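The authors assume throughout that readers already know how a fold can be written as discrete tokens. For illustration, here is how one protein appears when written out as sequence plus structure tokens:
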Amino acid sequence: MTRPIIDAHMHLFTALSAEYPRGVHPLHPEERRAEVEEYLRYADTEGVSHSVLVSLDEHDEYVIHAMNQHPGRFSAVAVMDTTAPSPAEDLRRRLDALPLVGFRVWTLGADASGEVPGPFLEMLAELERAGVAAWFYSDEHQLRALAGVIERYPDLTVVLNHLGFCQSGFACDEWGRPRIDAAIPPPSLEIVEKLSQHPNVAVLFSGHYAFSRESYPYEDLRGVSWRLLEAFGPTRLMWASDWPWIKEEPGYRALIDLPAHQLPGIDDSVGDLLLGGNAERILGIEVKGDS
């Protein structure tokens, strides 16, 4: 590894409190913590230089805390508030509070015909103007809608989360991780491959643990990984851990090593791009101490 390692998607949070409000879920009950100091001990041990910190939900207070405590160590992705009357106003509110590299999009509000309503188009236009990536994780219907409107926004970076799989609800497994029941390969993979024709679309190389029916290194997903590499090339895949869900199983080091297991035979230069170079370029990240 000759470039800095960048973890392109991870989460931090603390126990629910008035100071740090957040949603409560089986994945993150009131008392669960995944705090910045603990994470950095792991990241520093494994040589991770920078991390893209994704809020759990519409509450950004702990993300702001982590970034203030460790300037230059994190970039931020805010998460759409699906209850907000105006998606664009929700985005602008978050931009006022945080320097964002991404905004997690749960829905485009597309109806049965696939038409995206004006307020959501306004949000996409605002993301394009702000130079903030649409951090896309939704269902197959909304993914098809994205494919239908993306040509309107040629300067909008779109990052498809977690191998481009679609969000379909999830359970919590014995390790406290998301467990998503999805076909392998997913039917949506063909939509994702078509989206690769747009040079402004990239994919997170992450989430294998949640979809695989096998233990690490998730060999049943090798075919999906190779298809993504073939479609997007070596310059538009970004490795990510999805911390803290993977802390115990399979562990942070194992996730850093996963591209080499999933894509055996790739050369070091491709590995460098997946593990940091692509995130640095696509998201405009300046790694502290990077020469």
